[in-house]
């Protein structure tokens, strides 16, 4: 897919609509003021914003925040994000009262080079997720140039990621988008072998596409999280009360037979008598006793997975190995995060993506120590499945 980089555009005196990913967690401070709880995503878009401003353009930023469902919902307002952005850039940030319409068009026309306007949450408009002509045209009327820097939503054909882009002839990828695409291209097109994928999380059904496509490329696929129990059950192993998808057992059997020895399943577990931090916790071998549920991989599995990871030249990881949000079941996920860092030190190219695995690697303070932490879980999975992303297609000339 051919598209321009933001550095190839003439931005002087132009109004630049930048699709950013400001879908950040918020918190309410003790004084009742709502503020940004984690500004990683905002900081990640600063290189593109600063470049546009330094090149003599004005920046009109558009993002979604949460799922307001196509209507204005006060708790999903971009106002706290705008305030935080003003602190990070040291510049005033105009918060537009609406996403599209006469008012915001008038503000956009009055913007001087170097000024920033943040549009209100684009998902306040129902036409955003349906990619309506009305919202696409409304956004396109605000700008002379379109830049997409929101890799995390590039797998969605929405008005702000696709419709508006196609209506603005001058368009390009921002720095963050480019870095993500370049890095993941390296993994999808020419990975160094041994190539190991670690896939975890809740459901097999969410990750069938990625498992099938990874099996064509990887030397080893390590399975963890709840989805491992569907595979174990498909092999006739006792899984007790563990979360399983019984309508996916045939599919799991089919994947196992196709994968042969390349697919690896946990051989021991940390289990509990309830899905709770205060449950009674026990270790088990491969069979899970009745009345218990598997909530994390056990030490033998950590050791065997780690030895495979440490021999790899390329590693990708998506999805936690257990219920890492609860302390008694977090060890497997954090141990694998640490092994990824060790593999990186030994020269492997290591990529982590997906909200929960990224949260785990950030919480353990290791995010700087792997090769790449992707800002897009779904977008990364779709790229790895070999799909083209609508947000990238829309940047094409
Ligand atoms: P996903 O969004 O599919 O990557 O799934 C992430 C979620 O899976 C996290 O919230 C984990 O707590 C959950 N998870 C991981 N392992 C298990 C397990 N063994 N049992 C239940 N939930 C799990």
Keywords:
alpha/beta, 2 domains, Rossmann fold, 397 residues, six-stranded parallel β-sheet, binds adenosine monophosphate
Number of strands: 17
User: Can you tell me the CATH architecture of the largest domain?
Assistant: 3-Layer(aba) Sandwich
Structural class: alpha/beta
Shape: elongated
Low-confidence stretches: none
Average of pLDDT: 95
Radius of gyration: 23 Å
- Percentage of residues assigned to helices: 25-40%
Q: Looking at CATH, which topology of the largest domain would you report?
A: Rossmann fold
Strand content: 15-25%
Q: What is this entry, summarized?
A:
This protein has 397 residues and is of the alpha/beta class. The chain has helices at 40-54, 79-89, 102-110, 126-129, 133-140, 159-167, 175-189, 204-215, 227-234, 249-259, 299-309, 331-345, 355-363, 377-384, 390-393, and strands spanning 15-19, 26-28, 34-36, 58-62, 93-95, 116-118, 145-148, 170-173, 195-199, 220-223, 263-264, 269-272, 281-284, 293-297, 314-318, 349-353, 372-373.
């Amino acid at each position: 897919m051919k598209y321009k980089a933001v550095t190839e555009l003439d931005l002087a005196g132009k109004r630049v609509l930048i699709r950013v990913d400001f879908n950040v967690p918020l918190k309410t401070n003790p004084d009742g003021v709502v503020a940004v709880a984690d500004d990683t995503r905002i900081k990640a878009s600063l290189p593109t914003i600063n470049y546009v401003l330094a090149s003599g353009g004005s920046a009109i930023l558009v993002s979604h925040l949460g799922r307001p469902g196509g209507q204005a919902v006060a708790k999903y307002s971009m106002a706290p994000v705008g305030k935080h952005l003003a602190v990070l850039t040291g510049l005033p940030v105009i918060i537009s009262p609406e996403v599209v319409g006469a008012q915001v068009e008038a503000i956009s026309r009055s913007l001087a080079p170097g000024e920033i306007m943040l549009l209100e949450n684009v998902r306040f408009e129902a036409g955003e997720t349906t990619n309506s002509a009305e919202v696409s045209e409304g956004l396109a009327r605000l700008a002379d140039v379109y830049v997409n820097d929101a890799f995390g939503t590039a797998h969605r054909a929405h008005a702000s990621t696709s419709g508006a882009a196609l209506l603005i002839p001058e368009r390009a990828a921002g720095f963050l988008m480019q870095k993500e695409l370049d890095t993941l291209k390296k993994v999808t097109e020419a990975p160094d072998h041994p190539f190991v994928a670690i896939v975890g999380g809740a459901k097999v059904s969410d990750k069938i596409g990625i498992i099938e496509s990874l099996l064509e490329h990887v030397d080893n696929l390590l399975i963890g999280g709840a989805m491992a129990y569907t595979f174990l059950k498909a092999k006739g192993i006792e899984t007790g009360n563990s979360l399983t998808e019984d309508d996916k057992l045939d599919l799991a059997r089919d994947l196992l037979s196709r994968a042969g020895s390349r697919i690896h399943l946990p051989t021991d577990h940390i289990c509990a008598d309830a899905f709770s931090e205060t449950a009674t916790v026990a270790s088990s071998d491969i069979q899970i006793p009745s009345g218990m549920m598997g909530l994390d991989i056990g030490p033998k599995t950590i050791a065997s997975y780690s030895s495979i990871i440490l021999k790899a030249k390329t590693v990708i990881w998506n999805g936690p190995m257990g219920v890492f949000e609860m302390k008694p079941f977090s060890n497997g996920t954090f141990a694998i995060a640490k092994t990824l860092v060790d593999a990186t030190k030994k020269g492997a190219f290591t990529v982590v993506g997906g909200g929960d695995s990224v949260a785990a690697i950030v919480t353990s303070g290791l995010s700087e120590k792997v090769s790449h932490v992707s800002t897009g879980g779904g977008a990364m999975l779709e790229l790895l499945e070999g799909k083209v992303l609508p947000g990238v297609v829309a940047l094409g000339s």
